[in-house]
Amino acid sequence: MLREFRGRVWTFGDDVSTDHIIAGKYLGTTDAKVFAAHAFEAVDPTWSSKVQPGDVIVAGDNFGCGSSREQAPVALKTLGISGILANSFARIFFRNAINLGFPVLECPGLRAKVQPGDVIEVDMARGEVRIPHGQVMRFTALPPNVLEILEAGGLVAKIRSDLSTKRP
Amino acid sequence: MPPLTMSEKILAKASGNESVRPGQIVDGSVDLLYMHEMLAMALIPFGEIGTAKVWDPTKIVVTLDHWVPPPTPEIAKMHQTIRDFCRRQGIQRFHDVGDHGIVHQLIAERGYAHPWDLVIGSDSHTNMVGALGAFAAGIGATDTAAVMATGGLWLRVPETIRVDVRGTLGRCTGAKDVILKVIGTTGDDGARYAAVEFAGPTVGALPMNERFVLCNMTTEMGAKVGMIAADETTKRYLAHNGIPFRPISSDDGATFAKSFAFDVDGMGPQVACPSNPANLKPVEEVQGTKIDVAFLGSCTNARIEDLRIAAELLKGEKVAPGVRFQITPASQIIYRQALEEGLIEIFMDAGATFTSSTCGPCFGGHLGTLAGDEVCISSTNRNYPGRMGSPQAQVYLASPWTVTASAIHGEITDPRKV
Ligand code: SF4
User: Fold this and answer.
1) Which of B40, B43, B122 minimises the CB distance to A68?
2) Is the pTM here over 0.90, yes or no?
């Protein structure tokens, strides 16, 4: 995971559900490229072709509510989104993203301060976001155990390293 | 020891601590891990972890439920992969097509979850199982792989929100109407990360099938778990499967982050309007809305009691012309009960469709999806855009009474008037 990143903003509102992010009809596969190609189709059918690697999502309250489908963060990560900043996240989405080594940070109030297309800079470990006009907004950084999973590159990498240190 | 809530007690036990407090991160050892087709997704990170064997095949249950029977060659292949994996790993409690059920219902009706258990399911509506006095939380694919490999999971101890319900419900009104009312009040993120505990005389008097409805839809409040104290009703339900019983309830003086009190005395049917489960209206305000589809199914409301309600209203009636009414039981066991009780004949006489158990239409997967201009009234739990098919379709959520009455009249109908 990149501790710090800079990217162009895509904005979303409140209560973006996993059904918005990737519809149930595309789940009959394990191919991440399929999920990526249909990401946010219910909102904008051409979204996945417009988004660029490195872009950042800034959303309102309760991002990722609904189903436990990990295909939702997988779709966004596969498109190269560098991170998601939302006023708040639904809990399973948040866990899934962290487990994938995909940066997510709760930034209450950020959504109201940015416009689509703005370029922002994010420092995950400090919980800082630099928005246009040089203003820096501060948020609660991730708890240490969560940051540890992100830094390891996700839960799989973390468990692998835990297991290998346990083995003689 | 400080007084604890139910969820705190279970997490203390599962993490080998005497006590835990909200916000604390604990490592829980899992008593039961259950999965549906998500297992196929979890096999990728499981392979990457590389432990080869699951931690304990006797603590795992797998069924197929989302796409049953498989509608495409790809999904048939996915089922094969799951079947082979369970065989190789010695997972005996694999419920294949024919012996299947929507996983939460299957776990409950087969007696696989018990009070005091830490239950982890690869699906967001695992909350339903908390009605048995278990701590039952849903997770995604990578967490599922982690539990398969290690038998453990890190968990943040949630704050508990208490929901007290009192009063006698009106006619043709049940737990679905209560939970819709609760979600309409708290919002669809009103319990994010929290444990929701239902209590009070109305909840105490509810039978298990209705308690499952309450806990099932705590997911639509953003909750980590939904719980109800395990009492005599729970004991009777489990005794059916010969399960030893140990009661659980929150201690007097336990700390609740928030408390809500609902007086539902005489309350009538409620409907969640498109396209959010918290977009609540009493049925009087939406009656007359024309519908194309009525669906009675899902882990929320497709138990035998729900099917009996539908049969009672449908007997001697017909589904409105131009409306398709689909009834999909939550498990094969319920299917057989419906058959034995003669309910299927009533459904067929009325012009409804009765299918094998599957999640299918609930998540817009197969076996009954919605076109863009269709309006549906559904006994399921979610109505976000695109949930049941086209993102343009309009979905109203309601109880089995309201769904069936609406199917008969071709428009949203107050079941008390039928
Ligand atoms: S019935 Fe619907 S809500 Fe329940 S597990 Fe299946 S897809 Fe999920």
Assistant:
1) B122
2) yes
